[in-house]
Amino acid sequence: MAPTQPSQPLTTTATTIERLRQLSQTSIQSSWHWAHTDVSILGSLQQDSWSTWPIAPLNQRQHIAWPRGQHPLWLCQRITVPETLHGYLVQDQQLKLALTWWAEQAQIFLDGALVQAGDLFDCFTRIHLSSAVQPGQSFIIALRLISPGHDDGALVRSHLIYEAQPNEPIEPGFLADELSVLQLYLTHFAPDQQSHLDTALRQINWANLSHRDHFHQSLETLRHHLAPLGTWIKQRQIHLLGHAHLDLAWLWPLEDTWLAAERTFHSVLSLQQTFTELTYTHSSPALFAWLEVNRSDLFQSIQYQVRSRRWAVDAGLWVEPELNLISGESITRQILYGQRYCQDKFGHISPIAWLPDSFGFCWQLPQLLAQGGIRYFATQKLRWNDTNPFPHDLFWWQGLDGTRILSLTLPPIGSDIDPLTMATYACDWETKTGLPEALWLPGIGDHGGGPTQDMLDKAHRWATSPFFPRLTFTHAVDFLQTLETRLASPPHQHSSLTDISLAPNASSAKSKTNDIDTSSPSDSDQDLSLPVWHNELYLELHRGCYTTHADQKWYNRRCEDLLYQAELFSSLATLLTDHAYPKAELETAWKQVLFNQFHDILPGSAIPDVFQTANDTWQTALATAKRLLDQALATITQTLPQPHAPSNTAIPIFIFNPLNWKRSEVVTITPPPSSSTKHLWCIQDSKGRHVPHQKQDQLIQVPEALHFLATDIPSIGYRLFWLSQQETSSIPTSKNCPDWSLENTFLKVTIDPCSGDLSNIVDKRTQREILSGPGNQLQAFVDKGQYWDAWNIAPDYAEHPLPSTTLNTIQWIESGPIRQRLRVIRSLNRSTFTQDYVLDVESSLLKIETWVDWQESQVMVKAAFPLTITTDVATYEIPYGTITRPTIPQTDEDKAKWEVPALRWASLGTSDYSISLLTTCKHGFDSQPSQLRLTLLKAPLWPDPKADRGKHHFTYAIYPHLGPLSAKHMTRKAHGLNIPIQARLHRPNTLAPDGDPWRSFLSLGDSSLVLSSLKLCEDDSQGFILRCYESQGETTTLNLKTSLNLDIQYSTDILENRLDSQVKHTPSTVSILPWGILNLCLKRP
């Protein structure tokens, strides 16, 4: 290439820097020939047949772009070394080719030989072309690129870098970067001194440009004159920590994750042999557990490096999970199993929750982390906000209960050693925090990779520069401990940088060194107290992840609920009998669930192969939990008394309540086949009194089933009913209804016969109409135009509504004294919604059981409920608590929360009345002062082109209730919807001894306490852990009542470490603070 002469030197720093850079670096972006073909051209490279290809055009961003869809592109050019660059001799210098691309696959060929490959994440490199170039030397570079399936491909940047030989004077381009760093720091911290830098730069002897030695001498003189500024900058420090973010599953199948981990870890271990100072961190004990079993030699090498403090397992949690959609107990198990693994395999727990990429963080996380022995929290995901930049880099995050945890906004992951990028980040960090020490994470990420030799070579080179902050390798925990120490130390008086005088000769420069204050910037007289963030950490992005891939949300909720019950009843069975507690099986099932809670699996943002594997895992965990639950209940029923059978043929029905409050609910049972056509089944209570019941309609899947209202089922207990035969045909069944209304003691619900919407819901207790317009209106919107299709919802979706659904049919399914069920079937384009409005006797909960055949693309559908109450805030359930969010946004942060997550319920409430939406597996909501909407389904095309297409089954409910909103009441209602009471028919060989027909095994007393777990202790086979949380935001007392002869022995943290000195208790009582999470060890006295 024939170099172009630079323009005449100007007097500004920026133009001088750019002129120096042009003497060592040159772009080759405009010289590529291109061909849209996948035919290999390697065999004809030397014949230059590619030279007839057209020159690739550059777009406005100076990129070479080509269409998305995994299309191939070849780029080729011959590079010939010139004698000079803009008059500067380049002979004998090193030559490197720097490339940055956006491609699903990238292959780089040098003179026909493959020298490197990359992908979307391993997307930049520097290729070594020559150790000592000679004028006229040439190289043929060919690139084979495949565009991403979801986005246009691009060659983003390509340029040549001429570098000086080791131990030779630095090249002009390196000085240009040094000067850029100086300019950055002066701009941020001493802007009134920049004119001195301009003055110094005029001393460069451009007349000697063609005489390299003389020109270098003038550059060295300049560097010496600037030495006082170097002293000032060297008071700062950038801590390096090698890192390779590795998504356990995302745009690759799980099997590829193991290979990427193996490749990455071998690379790091190899580099640590050469670069002995290199420290490295990785998260996810689940990944190391796989290595331990499948790559034991590699695992042992990592263990050795951990003991040598050259490798850190910064974990805290089993995986890096989604933290808005999982239960508080799931987060607890993430911490419990993650920390226990670290302790067992690496000798210590992790003091840091390393969660760089999870999609937002619930408000109870600080308390949970602190209870898991975690002192620090780190993420970089908040840098992705699409509306408001997150304001803090270092802050105290205060949880719902008041727990504070030191929190760090990490630098961007997947970063190179780039001096200007690093200095820009460090200046911004110091501006925000007042701290002169920053952290940087070099390493290729997302699909593994880690630091490269080129990164470490550049780090070595910049560590020797006098005009760059000190570079040292460290660990994240050491870095944070250093910051804690600085924050705890009182500030010292320090004068600012005010008198920089750069002399024209070396001796004068030396004499002026003392004119520059060399105190550490951290010693300035400034307030180093940290800001406090007292709220959730809401990610202003990826709002579609609350909804996408609904199957994952369904599986997760079902697994969580069944594992809770399997553990609970296994514990009861163990306490009541000689039943062997299935600890290993439960732990295995929990870890399967925890793995699938990874932040690209549960949110639904992965490729189809990932979900095929995940669904197999979900189903295995479900089967295990169900089997263990059935075994435990079967064991328990064998021990229970069955007094006063109303007849010799009567079959006992044990109704078990898995929740810690008394419940009355409609139960559906399936009687055994009757041997007589003259006898029909009936329900009787323990005293032989007939219980009203209703035969399920033939249109339901189990036509012989019976509904009845099971009343007053005790907390964590059971009540006995009987299934008997009677000689009558008077069992109530469905009856014909003249209209489309459901009605019981509490509600009258009317369905619009033209649309299938709810036209009225009247609360008969107050004669209040709760709907201000059509309720359960299915509103569909175009949802496209987002790069992160599965992750995001189009911000302008409300401007693109689709036509309303069409009512196909409306019909009664059941209309009896126990249950009324009215079915509406509606069409939306190619999709069908079948919804049953279900109203049970003695219930003010209207359930909407839903089946969908979903066949849309890039469409989102919501269920809207306009209401007759108006309020400024909506309340939502989060893991182990609640949060209020404004219905009328007041701040920019409020405005960004136009789609928000909730766990099981959301409510609008006034001082005398409240209305709530409850869900079994839907999490996305939006609210207005008089409306709640629930997002039901999305239909993205990337990265899974068929995400959510197909069959769905889920339930949600609307629940009007008297009085102001009670979080504890709503939490109980939502738990009840998700965890129904369990009915077990039991034909004993012999009747058990007489006894009470009901029993509460366990009660916690106060109505605001919610049981989260009853399980065997991890390390004590005689003890059981009872975990509960306070759900109303009030100080209260747990009053343990149990028929199992258990006492409170001591309180623990999540890791089951004893905390006697912190929580006072008696054998049966213990106080709990608002929103507190309580862990107790119970034993028999």
UniProtKB/TrEMBL annotation:
Protein name: Mannosylglycerate hydrolase
Taxonomic lineage of the native organism: Bacteria, Bacillati, Cyanobacteriota, Cyanophyceae, Nodosilineales
Source organism, top-level taxon: Bacteria
Metal-binding found in the keyword field: yes
GO BP: any one term: oligosaccharide catabolic process
Keyword line: Glycosidase, Hydrolase, Metal-binding
GO MF: alpha-mannosidase activity; carbohydrate binding; mannosylglycerate hydrolase activity; metal ion binding
Chain segments carrying region Disordered: 508-527
Known EC number: 3.2.1.170
Enzyme class: hydrolase
Family: Belongs to the glycosyl hydrolase 38 family.
